[in-house]
Amino acid sequence: MNKHLSLHLQRLRLERGGRVVLRDIDWRIRPGQRWMLIGANGAGKTQLLKILAGDVWPTPTGRELRRYRWRGETFDTPYGVKEEIAYLGAERQDRYERHEWNFSVEQIVGTGLYRTDTPLDALTVVDRRRVAALLRRFDMGHLAARRFLTLSYGERRLVLLARALATRPQLLLLDEPFNGLDQAHGGILRRWLVRSTASALPWVLATHRADEVPASATHAAVLEEGRWRYRGVRNRAPLRCLSDAVPLAPSPAPGVPRGKRNVLVRLAGADVYLDGVHVLRNLSFEIGAGECWVVHGANGSGKTTLLRAIHGDHGIAGEVWRAGIEPGVPLERFRQQVGWISPQLQSRFPRWLPVAEVVQSGRHASIGLHEPLTAADRPGTQRALNRFGLAHLAGRIVGELSYGQMRRVLFARAWVHRPRLLLLDEPYAGVDAPTRARLMADIEQLIAQGVTVMMAAHHRDEWPRSISHELRLSRGAVEFCGPSAGAARR
Prior knowledge:
The chain is an alpha/beta fold and 490 residues long. The protein has two domains: 231 residues, Rossmann fold (3-Layer(aba) Sandwich), CATH 3.40.50; 227 residues, Rossmann fold, CATH 3.40.50. It has 14 helices and 19 strands. The strands form four sheets. The protein has a six-stranded mixed beta sheet, sandwiched between helices. A six-stranded mixed beta sheet has the order 15-16-17-13-18-19, sandwiched between helices. Strands 2-1-4-5 form a four-stranded antiparallel beta sheet, with no helix packed on it. Strand 16, helix 13 and strand 17 form a beta-alpha-beta unit.
């Protein structure tokens, strides 16, 4: 008797907010099959995975079938097997930030053993050994005692994958699992997916990038506007929609600014501590107006913490100077001059918030608005929505958007108040290739117009062509800081 789940979907339909998200979905997943799930932002990938996991209920039509088979029994709803399905996606990860579940890494993985959200009892010696083995599998063993919210976004993703495997799932659903992973840790995940062929464990992996598809994938499913475009063996799949970023046309590049430097941010001997952990050490540099900085380094090197510290989310020990912020001037004044995009920011917006309100909140550096949109506000909000191709989403709420669509909304929010400085933390995570190319072109245009940019990115093909400076971090310290070699060649 096969211990792994098999499932059969037939004629499934999903409506959200009065619009059809999925229609006529037929799908069989059998033990030993390893599926990649592909489609543009808004195609319905995440909602389909949530239906499989039992987190979302399809729209009843009287014709639909959702059948799970496990250990010789058949279930017509996921209730009998829900605990046997592990689902890992951005929203699951964001819950820890939203609810401030700042337990130790060992405790977080340990909750998988008992399939609870938060720790209920102390782990036994046997439990701790199992947790340690799972963490070592993903090169996370040294983080066992760290608090979860002190980790980088990529480190959190691998810890939660270890937690998912601690449940000993019979079906594994992975929604963009490579988001936030550096090359080394992405390789660890890819190798684990390849080794999984030794098991009959079926999995489904949603992705937008060709370099994230493991060689062990056996099947492909391609969604287009909520319908199947293809569903079958991998080697016959139309994968043109799965590509890396489209090359950008040459754009004006300011290079390294000449003459007197107008400094926007200065750090000198700066340190940052999170829950007693010394995350950033003795950082000293200046960001000048019109410059384009790329911050890079391995997971856990401190990239996100640095951007959040500059934005004012974390306290800085040492000298920090921000243009226009003198003693007695609230830090909020600086934030209102900054466009800010990050996974943590995306997780903070309530699901019921209207898209137009999210965009307008960029003017106030707030989460939502204290007062309704005024007639004077609306033209600027509409211009931002139009610029980023979001006019058709203006009347929607956050909970109706895909992860990639919400990321584009954050771009509009960052631009709505015409910022002097853009702080971008993995800004293209979760967006499809055509959207990524368009957003990269938008950033190039803003740089050419004199907007200062500081971006953290793992993929070099996402670095702006107009880069002027690089900052490479290693274990919280500066490994290299200076003009970019690419800028010097230009």
